[in-house]
Amino acid sequence: xxxxxxxxxxxxxxxxxxxxxxxxxxxxxxxxxxxxxxxxxxxxxxxxxxxxxxxxxxxxxxxxxxxxxxxxxxxxxxxxxxxxxxxxxxxxxxxxxxxxxxxxxxxxxxxxxxxxxxxxxxxxxxxxxxxxxxxxxxxxxxxxxxxxxxxxxxxxxxxxxxxxxxxxxxxxxxxxxxxxxxxxxxxxxxxxxxxxxxxxxxxxxxxxxxxxx
Length: 213
Description:
The structure is a single chain. The chain has helices spanning 37-41, 80-85, 89-94, 113-118, 151-156, 159-164, 181-192; strands at 69-75, 97-104, 132-138, 173-179, 207-211. By secondary structure, it is of the alpha/beta class. α4 (113-118) links the parallel β2 and β3 (132-138). The longest helix is centred in the last third of the chain and has 12 residues, at 181-192. The chain contains seven helices and five strands; from the N terminus they run αβααβαβααβαβ. The chain starts with 36 loop residues before the first helix and ends with a strand. It has one domain (61-211): Nucleotide-binding domain of ferredoxin-NADP reductase (FNR) module (Rossmann fold), CATH 3.40.50. It is an enzyme of class 1 (oxidoreductase). GO terms for molecular function: ferredoxin-NADP+ reductase activity. This is ferredoxin--NADP(+) reductase. It holds the Pfam family NAD_binding_1. Keywords: Oxidoreductase.
């Protein structure tokens, strides 16, 4: 983004849009006084925004080998890349079960709920109906249909697997994490204790991560 003083500010964002979309959709929260988001919030139709031609990142399904169950664990705006992944065929074709776990502090922060509910009604995804389960998590208040503990706690006490009706296992599970760095670090440790390892280029594993902060 080019600021009023002529300087350029860059930030990395994951796209909400499907890979085949003609328009780009991003999900951001305005940080008061933030160097980037405050400027972004003031943009209007016709204003200019700089976007790199090449997309970068490691939160892609090609990080994984095999697997039967895809777990997408997000906090806050970390839901963005998972919305993009779920609008494409690959995840639906590759995996038998998809569990989208979305954690926020208050229910009003849950975003894209209607879009998530409508995914399996899309013509090009209708054949995969029944594969996706949405598991909302609201940590600071009780909300109908939502779990009420942090993702790490829910993994440790078995609450997440009980809600999903599915076991987290190195053999079958492939887990993608996107959210704030603290959530990523803590969840990685909990998963590692279950023998779910970070997937590296030289050592395929069961976990892929991206900090979204």
